[in-house]
Amino acid sequence: MIRATLALFAFAVVICGLIIFRPFAGNDQITQDRLDTPFEDSADTAVEVTRSATPDISALAQAAVAAAPLTVDLGTGIVQAPRRVDVARPSTDDTRLSDMTNNVLAELGFAGLEPVTTNSQAQRQSTSDILAGIEAATGQRSILDERETLEAIVITALRAGESDESIDLIVNTAAASGDVAVPEILVTSDGRVDTFVLLNNIVTQARIAAGGAAPAIPDVTPDNTAGMEVRIIQRATDEIEARFYTVQSGDSLGAISIKFYGVIGQYETIFEANKGLLSSPDRIRVGQRLVIPQLDA
Amino acid sequence: MKTIACLAIFACALTVGGAAQAQDVRITTFKRESVIPLTRNKNMNATLQREFARTSRACPLDCIQPMRIADGVLTLGELELLDFLEDRVTGGTGLLIDTRVPAEFATGSILSGVNVPVAMPNFENRFRGDILRALGAVAQVDGSLDFTNAMALTLYSGGVWSNDAPNAIGHLMAAGYPANKLFYYRGGMQAWAHVGLTIHQSQNLG
User: Fold this and answer.
1) Is residue A60 a part of any domain in this protein?
2) How many domains does chain A contain in total?
3) For residue range A107-128, what is the model confidence (pLDDT) as tens digits?
4) Which structural domain, as residue segments, surrounds residue A138?
5) Are A92 and B115 within 8 A, CB to CB?
6) Cβ within 8 Å of A, B 22-51
7) What is the predicted ipTM?
8) Per-residue buried b or exposed e for B76-90, using 16+ beta carbons within 10 Å of the residue's own CB
9) Cα A38–A201–A99 angle (5° rounding)?
10) pTM for this one?
Protein backbone atom coordinates (compact mmCIF):
# COMPACT_ATOMS: atom_id res chain seq x y z
CA MET A 1 0.00 0.00 0.00
CA ILE A 2 2.76 2.42 0.96
CA ARG A 3 4.70 1.49 -2.14
CA ALA A 4 1.70 2.15 -4.35
CA THR A 5 1.13 5.50 -2.66
CA LEU A 6 4.77 6.45 -3.09
CA ALA A 7 4.72 5.44 -6.76
CA LEU A 8 1.58 7.50 -7.36
CA PHE A 9 3.16 10.46 -5.58
CA ALA A 10 6.34 10.22 -7.65
CA PHE A 11 4.22 10.01 -10.80
CA ALA A 12 2.29 13.15 -9.77
CA VAL A 13 5.55 15.01 -9.10
CA VAL A 14 6.90 14.07 -12.54
CA ILE A 15 3.68 15.19 -14.23
CA CYS A 16 3.73 18.49 -12.34
CA GLY A 17 7.35 18.99 -13.36
CA LEU A 18 6.45 18.37 -16.99
CA ILE A 19 3.57 20.84 -16.81
CA ILE A 20 5.70 23.53 -15.21
CA PHE A 21 8.90 23.21 -17.21
CA ARG A 22 7.51 21.98 -20.59
CA PRO A 23 10.70 20.38 -21.85
CA PHE A 24 9.08 19.53 -25.20
CA ALA A 25 7.58 22.94 -26.03
CA GLY A 26 10.25 24.30 -28.35
CA ASN A 27 10.14 27.87 -29.53
CA ASP A 28 12.66 27.50 -32.33
CA GLN A 29 10.11 28.51 -34.91
CA ILE A 30 9.80 32.18 -34.06
CA THR A 31 13.29 33.24 -34.94
CA GLN A 32 12.94 31.75 -38.39
CA ASP A 33 9.56 33.28 -38.93
CA ARG A 34 10.65 36.65 -37.76
CA LEU A 35 13.65 36.87 -39.98
CA ASP A 36 11.83 35.54 -43.02
CA THR A 37 8.95 37.94 -42.82
CA PRO A 38 9.42 40.81 -45.24
CA PHE A 39 9.01 44.24 -43.76
CA GLU A 40 6.63 45.49 -46.47
CA ASP A 41 4.11 42.88 -45.44
CA SER A 42 3.07 44.83 -42.42
CA ALA A 43 2.85 48.20 -44.12
CA ASP A 44 0.00 47.44 -46.47
CA THR A 45 -2.32 45.61 -44.12
CA ALA A 46 -5.38 47.42 -42.96
CA VAL A 47 -5.03 46.29 -39.36
CA GLU A 48 -1.37 47.15 -38.97
CA VAL A 49 -1.25 49.70 -36.22
CA THR A 50 2.34 49.80 -35.11
CA ARG A 51 4.95 52.16 -36.33
CA SER A 52 7.94 50.56 -37.99
CA ALA A 53 8.37 46.86 -37.64
CA THR A 54 11.49 45.52 -39.20
CA PRO A 55 13.42 42.31 -38.85
CA ASP A 56 16.78 43.89 -39.54
CA ILE A 57 18.57 44.90 -36.37
CA SER A 58 20.34 47.97 -37.74
CA ALA A 59 17.21 49.21 -39.49
CA LEU A 60 15.37 48.52 -36.26
CA ALA A 61 17.83 50.66 -34.35
CA GLN A 62 17.54 53.46 -36.90
CA ALA A 63 13.78 53.28 -36.88
CA ALA A 64 13.72 53.37 -33.12
CA VAL A 65 15.97 56.42 -33.05
CA ALA A 66 13.93 58.15 -35.74
CA ALA A 67 10.67 57.33 -34.02
CA ALA A 68 12.01 58.10 -30.59
CA PRO A 69 13.63 61.51 -30.43
CA LEU A 70 13.41 61.16 -26.66
CA THR A 71 16.32 58.78 -26.51
CA VAL A 72 18.60 61.68 -27.39
CA ASP A 73 20.33 62.97 -24.31
CA LEU A 74 19.59 66.70 -24.38
CA GLY A 75 22.57 67.57 -22.25
CA THR A 76 25.25 65.85 -24.27
CA GLY A 77 23.51 65.41 -27.60
CA ILE A 78 24.54 61.77 -27.56
CA VAL A 79 22.02 59.46 -29.09
CA GLN A 80 21.48 56.55 -26.77
CA ALA A 81 21.11 53.24 -28.51
CA PRO A 82 17.69 51.74 -27.87
CA ARG A 83 18.00 48.81 -25.54
CA ARG A 84 15.93 45.72 -25.65
CA VAL A 85 15.64 45.38 -21.94
CA ASP A 86 14.84 48.03 -19.34
CA VAL A 87 14.05 50.90 -21.65
CA ALA A 88 12.98 54.02 -19.82
CA ARG A 89 9.21 53.88 -19.62
CA PRO A 90 6.73 56.67 -19.07
CA SER A 91 5.18 56.69 -15.65
CA THR A 92 1.80 55.03 -15.62
CA ASP A 93 -1.25 55.03 -13.42
CA ASP A 94 -4.16 52.67 -13.37
CA THR A 95 -6.50 54.98 -15.21
CA ARG A 96 -8.36 53.04 -17.84
CA LEU A 97 -7.94 54.35 -21.37
CA SER A 98 -11.68 53.94 -21.99
CA ASP A 99 -12.47 56.17 -18.97
CA MET A 100 -9.98 58.76 -20.12
CA THR A 101 -11.30 58.72 -23.69
CA ASN A 102 -14.84 59.03 -22.39
CA ASN A 103 -13.85 62.17 -20.50
CA VAL A 104 -12.05 63.64 -23.50
CA LEU A 105 -15.15 63.12 -25.62
CA ALA A 106 -17.47 64.46 -22.93
CA GLU A 107 -15.27 67.54 -22.56
CA LEU A 108 -15.32 68.04 -26.32
CA GLY A 109 -19.11 68.13 -26.12
CA PHE A 110 -20.15 64.71 -27.38
CA ALA A 111 -23.83 64.19 -26.74
CA GLY A 112 -24.82 61.46 -24.32
CA LEU A 113 -21.43 61.14 -22.62
CA GLU A 114 -20.97 62.06 -18.98
CA PRO A 115 -17.54 62.48 -17.44
CA VAL A 116 -16.55 59.64 -15.11
CA THR A 117 -14.07 59.73 -12.26
CA THR A 118 -10.88 58.10 -13.50
CA ASN A 119 -8.74 56.07 -11.15
CA SER A 120 -6.12 58.77 -11.36
CA GLN A 121 -8.58 61.42 -10.19
CA ALA A 122 -9.79 59.12 -7.43
CA GLN A 123 -6.20 58.53 -6.34
CA ARG A 124 -5.50 62.23 -6.36
CA GLN A 125 -8.59 62.85 -4.25
CA SER A 126 -7.68 60.24 -1.66
CA THR A 127 -4.12 61.60 -1.56
CA SER A 128 -5.38 65.06 -0.77
CA ASP A 129 -7.61 63.52 1.93
CA ILE A 130 -4.56 61.84 3.43
CA LEU A 131 -2.53 65.04 3.31
CA ALA A 132 -5.39 66.88 4.99
CA GLY A 133 -5.41 64.24 7.71
CA ILE A 134 -1.65 64.49 8.25
CA GLU A 135 -1.90 68.26 8.23
CA ALA A 136 -4.64 68.17 10.86
CA ALA A 137 -2.40 65.99 13.04
CA THR A 138 0.93 67.75 12.55
CA GLY A 139 -0.19 71.29 11.83
CA GLN A 140 2.26 71.38 8.97
CA ARG A 141 0.90 72.62 5.70
CA SER A 142 1.42 70.33 2.74
CA ILE A 143 0.10 71.13 -0.66
CA LEU A 144 -0.50 68.68 -3.45
CA ASP A 145 1.05 70.07 -6.61
CA GLU A 146 -1.18 70.52 -9.59
CA ARG A 147 -0.05 68.10 -12.22
CA GLU A 148 -0.82 67.99 -15.87
CA THR A 149 -3.02 65.13 -16.97
CA LEU A 150 -2.88 63.26 -20.25
CA GLU A 151 -6.58 63.96 -20.56
CA ALA A 152 -6.05 67.74 -20.46
CA ILE A 153 -3.12 67.57 -22.90
CA VAL A 154 -5.15 65.59 -25.41
CA ILE A 155 -8.18 67.87 -25.08
CA THR A 156 -6.04 70.97 -25.64
CA ALA A 157 -4.30 69.41 -28.64
CA LEU A 158 -7.54 68.24 -30.24
CA ARG A 159 -9.16 71.64 -29.70
CA ALA A 160 -6.15 73.29 -31.34
CA GLY A 161 -6.55 70.96 -34.30
CA GLU A 162 -3.05 69.54 -33.98
CA SER A 163 -2.01 66.85 -36.43
CA ASP A 164 -1.51 63.26 -35.29
CA GLU A 165 2.26 63.74 -35.54
CA SER A 166 2.33 66.80 -33.35
CA ILE A 167 -0.01 65.19 -30.79
CA ASP A 168 2.44 62.29 -30.73
CA LEU A 169 5.29 64.71 -30.08
CA ILE A 170 3.41 66.71 -27.43
CA VAL A 171 2.27 63.63 -25.52
CA ASN A 172 5.66 61.91 -25.67
CA THR A 173 7.52 65.03 -24.58
CA ALA A 174 5.21 65.40 -21.59
CA ALA A 175 5.52 61.71 -20.73
CA ALA A 176 9.32 61.76 -21.01
CA SER A 177 9.56 64.68 -18.62
CA GLY A 178 7.74 62.55 -16.04
CA ASP A 179 5.04 65.15 -15.51
CA VAL A 180 2.19 63.08 -16.79
CA ALA A 181 1.19 59.47 -16.22
CA VAL A 182 -0.37 57.44 -19.01
CA PRO A 183 -2.57 54.33 -19.05
CA GLU A 184 -0.42 51.19 -18.98
CA ILE A 185 -1.68 49.78 -22.26
CA LEU A 186 -0.33 52.80 -24.16
CA VAL A 187 3.29 52.06 -23.25
CA THR A 188 5.14 50.60 -26.22
CA SER A 189 7.93 48.05 -26.30
CA ASP A 190 10.42 50.86 -26.87
CA GLY A 191 9.17 52.95 -23.95
CA ARG A 192 7.09 55.50 -25.80
CA VAL A 193 3.43 56.44 -25.59
CA ASP A 194 1.35 54.87 -28.33
CA THR A 195 -0.62 57.89 -29.52
CA PHE A 196 -1.94 55.92 -32.48
CA VAL A 197 -3.91 53.72 -30.09
CA LEU A 198 -4.91 56.77 -28.07
CA LEU A 199 -6.33 58.58 -31.12
CA ASN A 200 -7.72 55.44 -32.74
CA ASN A 201 -9.64 54.67 -29.56
CA ILE A 202 -11.05 58.20 -29.39
CA VAL A 203 -12.43 57.72 -32.92
CA THR A 204 -13.79 54.26 -32.06
CA GLN A 205 -15.47 55.36 -28.83
CA ALA A 206 -16.88 58.46 -30.55
CA ARG A 207 -18.36 56.26 -33.25
CA ILE A 208 -19.90 53.90 -30.70
CA ALA A 209 -21.25 56.86 -28.70
CA ALA A 210 -22.86 58.17 -31.87
CA GLY A 211 -24.72 54.86 -32.25
CA GLY A 212 -22.27 53.19 -34.62
CA ALA A 213 -21.21 49.57 -34.39
CA ALA A 214 -18.07 48.47 -32.63
CA PRO A 215 -15.23 47.58 -35.00
CA ALA A 216 -15.40 44.03 -36.27
CA ILE A 217 -12.76 41.54 -35.24
CA PRO A 218 -10.16 41.79 -38.00
CA ASP A 219 -9.16 38.78 -40.03
CA VAL A 220 -5.56 38.31 -38.98
CA THR A 221 -3.36 35.69 -40.53
CA PRO A 222 0.37 35.11 -40.42
CA ASP A 223 0.41 36.25 -44.06
CA ASN A 224 -0.79 39.75 -43.35
CA THR A 225 0.68 40.23 -39.90
CA ALA A 226 4.36 40.34 -39.12
CA GLY A 227 5.31 38.42 -36.03
CA MET A 228 2.20 36.25 -35.95
CA GLU A 229 2.21 32.50 -36.10
CA VAL A 230 -0.44 29.84 -35.82
CA ARG A 231 0.20 26.37 -34.49
CA ILE A 232 -2.15 23.44 -34.48
CA ILE A 233 -2.15 21.71 -31.13
CA GLN A 234 -3.49 18.16 -30.99
CA ARG A 235 -5.57 17.31 -27.99
CA ALA A 236 -7.14 14.06 -26.95
CA THR A 237 -10.48 14.65 -28.62
CA ASP A 238 -9.96 17.59 -30.91
CA GLU A 239 -7.35 19.98 -32.15
CA ILE A 240 -7.09 23.65 -31.41
CA GLU A 241 -5.46 26.48 -33.25
CA ALA A 242 -3.11 28.43 -31.03
CA ARG A 243 -2.14 31.92 -32.09
CA PHE A 244 1.11 33.55 -31.08
CA TYR A 245 2.42 37.02 -31.68
CA THR A 246 5.99 38.16 -31.30
CA VAL A 247 6.14 41.73 -29.99
CA GLN A 248 7.59 44.11 -32.56
CA SER A 249 9.29 47.42 -31.98
CA GLY A 250 6.70 50.11 -31.24
CA ASP A 251 3.96 47.72 -30.12
CA SER A 252 1.85 48.50 -27.10
CA LEU A 253 -0.61 46.10 -25.51
CA GLY A 254 -3.41 48.37 -26.71
CA ALA A 255 -2.06 48.17 -30.27
CA ILE A 256 -1.89 44.38 -30.15
CA SER A 257 -5.45 44.27 -28.82
CA ILE A 258 -6.64 46.43 -31.73
CA LYS A 259 -4.61 44.33 -34.16
CA PHE A 260 -6.25 41.07 -33.16
CA TYR A 261 -9.62 42.09 -31.73
CA GLY A 262 -10.37 45.49 -33.31
CA VAL A 263 -10.75 47.24 -29.93
CA ILE A 264 -8.52 48.06 -26.96
CA GLY A 265 -10.92 46.39 -24.53
CA GLN A 266 -9.49 42.92 -25.08
CA TYR A 267 -6.05 43.85 -23.78
CA GLU A 268 -7.03 42.12 -20.56
CA THR A 269 -7.62 38.90 -22.46
CA ILE A 270 -4.07 39.06 -23.80
CA PHE A 271 -2.63 40.16 -20.49
CA GLU A 272 -4.37 37.38 -18.55
CA ALA A 273 -3.15 34.78 -21.05
CA ASN A 274 0.45 35.99 -20.74
CA LYS A 275 0.76 36.76 -17.04
CA GLY A 276 3.82 34.55 -16.79
CA LEU A 277 5.59 36.79 -19.28
CA LEU A 278 4.17 40.22 -18.52
CA SER A 279 4.45 41.50 -14.96
CA SER A 280 2.22 44.42 -15.88
CA PRO A 281 0.63 45.62 -19.14
CA ASP A 282 3.31 48.28 -19.66
CA ARG A 283 6.18 45.79 -19.35
CA ILE A 284 6.00 44.72 -22.95
CA ARG A 285 9.32 44.05 -24.73
CA VAL A 286 10.40 43.45 -28.30
CA GLY A 287 10.71 39.73 -28.99
CA GLN A 288 8.29 38.52 -26.31
CA ARG A 289 6.11 35.77 -27.71
CA LEU A 290 2.55 36.33 -26.56
CA VAL A 291 -0.34 33.90 -26.66
CA ILE A 292 -3.33 35.47 -28.42
CA PRO A 293 -6.45 33.63 -27.25
CA GLN A 294 -9.44 33.14 -29.51
CA LEU A 295 -12.54 34.84 -28.19
CA ASP A 296 -15.35 32.51 -27.27
CA ALA A 297 -18.12 32.91 -29.76
CA MET B 1 -19.37 20.05 58.10
CA LYS B 2 -16.79 22.25 59.67
CA THR B 3 -14.92 22.46 56.40
CA ILE B 4 -17.99 23.67 54.50
CA ALA B 5 -18.60 26.38 57.11
CA CYS B 6 -15.00 27.49 56.83
CA LEU B 7 -15.27 27.64 53.06
CA ALA B 8 -18.49 29.67 53.25
CA ILE B 9 -16.93 32.16 55.63
CA PHE B 10 -13.87 32.45 53.38
CA ALA B 11 -16.05 33.06 50.31
CA CYS B 12 -18.02 35.72 52.14
CA ALA B 13 -14.82 37.41 53.24
CA LEU B 14 -13.56 37.43 49.64
CA THR B 15 -16.76 38.97 48.31
CA VAL B 16 -16.84 41.63 51.00
CA GLY B 17 -13.15 42.36 50.49
CA GLY B 18 -13.61 42.67 46.73
CA ALA B 19 -16.55 44.99 47.13
CA ALA B 20 -14.70 47.07 49.68
CA GLN B 21 -11.86 47.64 47.21
CA ALA B 22 -13.02 50.29 44.71
CA GLN B 23 -14.20 48.56 41.55
CA ASP B 24 -12.35 50.18 38.71
CA VAL B 25 -11.11 49.50 35.21
CA ARG B 26 -7.71 51.09 35.11
CA ILE B 27 -5.20 51.09 32.30
CA THR B 28 -2.58 49.76 34.72
CA THR B 29 -2.59 49.48 38.48
CA PHE B 30 -1.01 52.89 38.83
CA LYS B 31 -2.54 54.54 35.80
CA ARG B 32 -6.22 55.32 35.82
CA GLU B 33 -6.37 57.16 32.52
CA SER B 34 -4.00 58.68 30.03
CA VAL B 35 -3.05 62.35 29.91
CA ILE B 36 -4.52 62.37 26.46
CA PRO B 37 -8.31 61.97 26.61
CA LEU B 38 -8.24 58.23 26.66
CA THR B 39 -9.48 55.70 29.15
CA ARG B 40 -11.07 52.27 29.42
CA ASN B 41 -14.73 51.41 29.31
CA LYS B 42 -15.82 51.30 32.95
CA ASN B 43 -18.70 48.95 32.29
CA MET B 44 -17.41 45.59 33.55
CA ASN B 45 -20.07 43.67 31.66
CA ALA B 46 -19.12 45.07 28.28
CA THR B 47 -18.24 42.52 25.61
CA LEU B 48 -16.96 42.78 22.08
CA GLN B 49 -19.66 43.42 19.52
CA ARG B 50 -20.19 42.87 15.80
CA GLU B 51 -17.02 43.21 13.74
CA PHE B 52 -14.63 42.98 16.68
CA ALA B 53 -16.34 39.85 17.99
CA ARG B 54 -15.53 37.88 14.84
CA THR B 55 -12.91 35.18 15.22
CA SER B 56 -12.71 33.49 11.84
CA ARG B 57 -11.95 35.72 8.93
CA ALA B 58 -11.04 34.07 5.67
CA CYS B 59 -7.35 33.26 5.24
CA PRO B 60 -5.77 33.69 2.71
CA LEU B 61 -6.59 37.36 2.77
CA ASP B 62 -6.82 37.95 6.50
CA CYS B 63 -4.09 35.77 7.97
CA ILE B 64 -2.43 35.82 11.37
CA GLN B 65 0.59 38.12 11.31
CA PRO B 66 3.97 37.38 12.91
CA MET B 67 5.24 39.27 15.94
CA ARG B 68 8.31 40.52 14.08
CA ILE B 69 7.44 41.79 10.66
CA ALA B 70 10.71 43.38 9.57
CA ASP B 71 14.24 43.90 10.85
CA GLY B 72 14.43 46.96 13.03
CA VAL B 73 10.68 47.52 13.23
CA LEU B 74 9.50 47.21 16.83
CA THR B 75 6.14 45.68 17.59
CA LEU B 76 4.11 47.51 20.22
CA GLY B 77 1.45 46.45 22.69
CA GLU B 78 -1.23 48.73 24.10
CA LEU B 79 0.96 50.27 26.82
CA GLU B 80 3.86 50.94 24.47
CA LEU B 81 1.38 52.50 22.05
CA LEU B 82 0.08 54.71 24.88
CA ASP B 83 3.64 55.80 25.61
CA PHE B 84 4.11 56.54 21.92
CA LEU B 85 0.92 58.62 21.88
CA GLU B 86 1.81 60.48 25.05
CA ASP B 87 5.43 61.19 24.15
CA ARG B 88 5.99 61.15 20.43
CA VAL B 89 2.57 62.15 19.06
CA THR B 90 1.91 64.78 21.71
CA GLY B 91 5.45 66.05 21.25
CA GLY B 92 4.95 66.39 17.51
CA THR B 93 7.63 63.90 16.49
CA GLY B 94 5.40 60.92 15.85
CA LEU B 95 2.22 59.99 14.08
CA LEU B 96 -0.22 57.16 14.55
CA ILE B 97 -1.26 55.80 11.18
CA ASP B 98 -4.45 53.86 10.54
CA THR B 99 -3.90 51.81 7.39
CA ARG B 100 -7.46 50.58 6.97
CA VAL B 101 -9.63 51.69 4.09
CA PRO B 102 -11.44 55.01 4.67
CA ALA B 103 -14.82 53.31 5.12
CA GLU B 104 -13.51 51.22 8.05
CA PHE B 105 -11.60 54.16 9.47
CA ALA B 106 -14.84 56.15 9.48
CA THR B 107 -16.44 53.64 11.88
CA GLY B 108 -14.04 54.71 14.62
CA SER B 109 -10.31 54.74 15.29
CA ILE B 110 -7.68 55.17 17.95
CA LEU B 111 -7.40 58.80 19.05
CA SER B 112 -5.09 60.87 16.83
CA GLY B 113 -4.92 58.12 14.20
CA VAL B 114 -4.41 59.49 10.71
CA ASN B 115 -5.91 57.48 7.88
CA VAL B 116 -3.35 56.48 5.26
CA PRO B 117 -4.93 53.53 3.44
CA VAL B 118 -2.45 50.76 2.76
CA ALA B 119 -2.51 51.09 -1.00
CA MET B 120 -1.31 54.65 -0.94
CA PRO B 121 2.43 54.79 -0.23
CA ASN B 122 3.22 52.01 -2.71
CA PHE B 123 5.60 52.12 -5.62
CA GLU B 124 3.18 52.78 -8.42
CA ASN B 125 1.58 55.73 -6.76
CA ARG B 126 2.66 59.01 -8.28
CA PHE B 127 1.62 60.79 -5.11
CA ARG B 128 3.91 58.73 -2.91
CA GLY B 129 6.45 61.56 -2.76
CA ASP B 130 3.80 64.02 -1.64
CA ILE B 131 2.77 61.76 1.23
CA LEU B 132 6.36 61.06 2.30
CA ARG B 133 7.16 64.78 2.28
CA ALA B 134 4.08 65.44 4.41
CA LEU B 135 5.52 62.89 6.88
CA GLY B 136 8.67 64.94 7.16
CA ALA B 137 10.92 63.54 4.46
CA VAL B 138 12.88 66.22 2.63
CA ALA B 139 13.51 66.09 -1.10
CA GLN B 140 17.18 66.20 -2.02
CA VAL B 141 18.71 67.82 -5.08
CA ASP B 142 19.18 64.44 -6.75
CA GLY B 143 15.52 63.58 -6.30
CA SER B 144 15.98 61.19 -3.40
CA LEU B 145 14.39 61.76 0.00
CA ASP B 146 16.14 62.52 3.26
CA PHE B 147 14.36 60.90 6.19
CA THR B 148 16.52 62.34 8.98
CA ASN B 149 13.72 64.50 10.35
CA ALA B 150 10.85 62.31 9.25
CA MET B 151 8.19 61.45 11.83
CA ALA B 152 8.25 58.25 13.83
CA LEU B 153 5.25 56.25 12.70
CA THR B 154 3.18 53.62 14.46
CA LEU B 155 1.01 51.71 12.04
CA TYR B 156 -1.99 49.58 12.83
CA SER B 157 -4.90 48.00 11.03
CA GLY B 158 -7.90 45.86 11.94
CA GLY B 159 -6.21 43.28 14.15
CA VAL B 160 -3.61 40.54 14.33
CA TRP B 161 -5.33 38.99 11.31
CA SER B 162 -4.81 42.01 9.07
CA ASN B 163 -1.84 42.39 6.75
CA ASP B 164 -2.65 46.01 5.95
CA ALA B 165 -0.26 47.52 8.48
CA PRO B 166 2.58 45.07 7.64
CA ASN B 167 2.10 45.82 3.94
CA ALA B 168 2.14 49.56 4.57
CA ILE B 169 5.36 49.15 6.58
CA GLY B 170 6.81 47.16 3.68
CA HIS B 171 5.86 49.93 1.24
CA LEU B 172 7.37 52.60 3.47
CA MET B 173 10.61 50.67 3.91
CA ALA B 174 10.79 50.10 0.15
CA ALA B 175 10.47 53.86 -0.26
CA GLY B 176 13.47 54.32 2.05
CA TYR B 177 11.73 55.01 5.36
CA PRO B 178 14.17 54.03 8.14
CA ALA B 179 13.07 50.92 10.04
CA ASN B 180 13.92 52.50 13.40
CA LYS B 181 11.28 55.15 12.78
CA LEU B 182 8.59 52.54 12.16
CA PHE B 183 6.52 50.75 14.81
CA TYR B 184 3.86 48.11 14.43
CA TYR B 185 0.84 47.94 16.71
CA ARG B 186 -0.02 44.36 15.88
CA GLY B 187 -3.19 44.10 17.93
CA GLY B 188 -4.87 46.80 15.90
CA MET B 189 -8.43 47.96 16.41
CA GLN B 190 -9.63 44.58 17.64
CA ALA B 191 -7.12 44.33 20.48
CA TRP B 192 -7.73 47.98 21.33
CA ALA B 193 -11.45 47.32 21.57
CA HIS B 194 -10.83 44.03 23.38
CA VAL B 195 -9.55 45.84 26.47
CA GLY B 196 -12.18 48.55 26.28
CA LEU B 197 -9.84 51.39 25.36
CA THR B 198 -11.56 54.48 23.99
CA ILE B 199 -12.52 54.28 20.34
CA HIS B 200 -12.57 57.72 18.92
CA GLN B 201 -15.00 59.04 16.37
CA SER B 202 -12.81 59.49 13.29
CA GLN B 203 -12.15 62.88 11.86
CA ASN B 204 -12.63 61.68 8.35
CA LEU B 205 -12.15 64.53 5.95
CA GLY B 206 -13.05 62.55 2.84
Assistant:
1) yes
2) 1
3) 888 777 788 887 777 777 778 8
4) 26-292
5) no
6) none
7) 0.71
8) bebeebbebbeebbe
9) 140
10) 0.59
